[in-house]
Specification:
By secondary structure, this protein is mainly α. The protein has helices spanning about 10-15, 20-45, 50-70, 85-115, 125-145, 145-150, 160-170, 175-195, 200-215, 225, 245-275, 280-295, 310-315, 325-340, 350-360, 365-370, 375-390, 395-415, 425-430, 460-465, 485-500, 515-520, 525-530, 540-550, 555-565; strands at about 75, 305, 445-450, 475-480, 505-510, 535. It is globular, with a radius of gyration of 26 Å.
Length: about 575
Amino acid sequence: MIPEQWSPKLLLCLRDYSAHKFTQDLISGLTVGLVALPLAMAFGISSGVTPQAGIYTAVIAGFLISALGGSCSQIGGPTGAFVVIVAGIIAKFGVSGLALVTLMAGAMLIVMGVTGLGNAVRFIPRPVTIGFTNGIALLIASTQLKDFFGLKTPPVPSEFLPRMRMLAEYAGTLNLAALAVGAVSLGIILLLPRLTKRIPGSIVALTITTAGVALLRLPIETIGSKFGGIPAGLPTFSLPDLQVAHIIPLIPSALTVALLAAIESLLSAVVADGMSGDRHNSNVELIAQGIANMVTPLFGGIPATGAIARTATNIRSGAQSPVSGIIHALTLLTILLVAAPVARFIPLATLSAVLFVVAYNMGEWAEIGIILRLSKTDIVVWASTFALTVLADLTIAVEVGMSLAALLYIYRIAETTSVSPVTAEYIRDSQPHVLQDKVVPPYVRILRIHGPFLFGATEKLTEVTANLNGFPQIVIVRLRNMTALDATGLHALTVLAKRLRDSGRTLILCGARDQPARLLAQSELTEQIGHENIVPNVDEALDRARKAWLDFGGIGAELVREQSGH
């Protein structure tokens, strides 16, 4: 019998499974399967492989990640984050090199899960993750310009600047029919959700434009004209060329794929937890991701991970268990077996429109404004990672970003160390911060953060506040002993503030020291929770909590008056 800490979520969910839950899973699985179809083909094409490679990955990895993973609603498959990396690996080492890299990355993910090293992904600071997410999104969009505008060019360079120069040079080869198809597709994808969220906009765009291209015989590039269509039937099994001499040069690429897969899958699982109220098992999830990435290259697939957008769609469609993810994979397999011949009419301009939307959604562009309001060191880390992702490659970008972040971590720890005499003034000034002589009313919960609240430590706040149902109406976070704060810590506080607000609760911050206080003042968090809810000490925090509780009125107000003796 498998110990519960290593049990796939599927086994735990099936203990109280019912016909009603299966119906919900069936609807959500079919829905997310249709959403995944154009994405899988688009990710395959833009990665430099065939569209069927993307579908094979979505089917095999999607099935294995749902069946063996540690999340109740995670959907696995190819994602936009891997597009640039996979294209670079193929350009350097070929398709056989990609298969070996994916196998190695899968083995690394299994080791991370078995040893608990998956928690190490928490030590990648937010400016680094935002920097390479912004960079990847820009690179994905730039790779789709050729097909969206129907340009006739020689093979497009994999590097960003040469690619943009070539596209500008061949701008005169614009195909108006391709542009029209791409624009119509983009319009449908963006506008349909405003009318109804029940039907995926990408599927509607795919259906309309494919039918239009086939009936009108438009002179634009399609899956059939470029790849000869998609073969119907199951993929064939094939072992990659395993030679020790090939392994060493591929280790950096494999490590990059493994790290990115771990980061994206665990981030997606955290998002899923927030939407569904479930709690994922990180180690089991990483083992499942590793197994999936070791199996998919044996059938012509590419790297896979948890897909945030498809996972969110799965939950919104009513998913109750990992069965919905399995149904999503079987839906794609059915389409592959039955409708593959029709795929040759799918215009590449439509798939480009799909990826434009993916690039925009994954870019987290709003985060740039937040980072630009932080310290110069955070801005340098973000800008360096972003520039190197676009102009060099992701492996170098992450290495440099992590190196800068490590130096920044050391600097911040050193900056917060102080040696000073205890004076009468110090004792007097400390009195309002002391908790021992304070009465904490039942409508208040006080949390304290002790030590530097930097990347790598923020998960502790998430763990303590995982179940907000057990919290009273007002939460005070005491920052008196928080010696340092960075962008990742600030983001964790912002997420907590939003979760509390969404649950009808109030957050009060008190006692922030110099560096954290400066960062808070520069951030949007102050505006989000209100200036009146950031106070200098716990005395004022309790006073502010009393006033906030009175604002609730009714029984709460009476309780406060009783405790106050009025």
